[in-house]
Amino acid sequence: MVDIAVRSRVPGMPGDDLPVVLVRLADDRTTVRELIRRAVEEQIRELRADAARCRRILDRQYLSNADLRTQAITGAIKMPQQAPPDPDVTEEVTRAHQAFTVGTFVVFVGGRQVVDLDAEVALRLDEPVVFLRLVALAGG
User: Fold this and answer.
1) Is 35 in contact with 7 (CB distance < 8 Å)?
2) Which of 1-5, 46-50, 92-96, 130-134 shows the lowest per-residue confidence on average (mean pLDDT)?
3) What backbone phi and psi angles, to 5 degrees, belong to 139?
4) pLDDT number for residue 101
5) Residues with Cβ < 8 Å from 60, sequence gap 6 or more?
6) More confident position, 80 or 129
7) Which end of the chain is more exposed for a tag (fewer CB within 10 A), N or C?
8) 103 in the Ramachandran plot: left (φ > 0), alpha (ψ -120 to 50) or beta?
9) Is 30 exposed, middle or buried (0-12, 13-18, 19+ CB in 10 A)?
10) CA distances from 130 to 35, 73, 81, 112 (A)
11) Distance of CA 78 to CAs 28, 42, 68, 69, 133, Å?
């Protein structure tokens, strides 16, 4: 049994990081796909107490560059204004997998970036797992 702390960061957005979660795995080897799935499930469990904050953070973490460009045409990027529905775990896991695939966020395991969703990773005690949301710099 291996417990891994997963940290997620959104640069420049203090307070909107996903919570640090503990992912418990039966083995020290898993795929990035499975690690993302388990982390998203735990993050949603942690965030469910505050549905509005949960939706805002999930949208900010996985909002694609295409979504940002489409909204930017209107002059503002906005999060949904209606009361947020309780997140569907399967849908959020799919969004996270797609966001990883297109490079919206990256995953570092033990200080090394993993680029393939189906890559097997060896998890070690005291080696961090970090999900890092990439944010484009102004002008390029």
Assistant:
1) no
2) 46-50
3) 85, 5
4) 93
5) 10, 13, 16, 79, 133
6) 129
7) C
8) left
9) buried
10) 11, 32, 30, 10
11) 40, 26, 9, 12, 18
As a whole number of angstroms, the distance between CA 128 and CA 112 comes to 10
Give the pairing of strands 2-9 and 112-114. Answer: unpaired
Maximum Cα–Cα distance for the chain, whole Å? 49
Is residue 31 classed as helix, strand or coil in its secondary structure?
strand
Q: How is residue 11 annotated by DSSP? A: T
- Token pair 């417990």: residue: 3
Does 54 have pLDDT greater than 50? yes
- Distance, CA of 67 to CA of 62 (rounded, Å): 10
Tokens of 133: 């949301």
Fill in the DSSP letter of residue 12: T
Q: How far is CA 65 from the centre of its chain?
A: 15
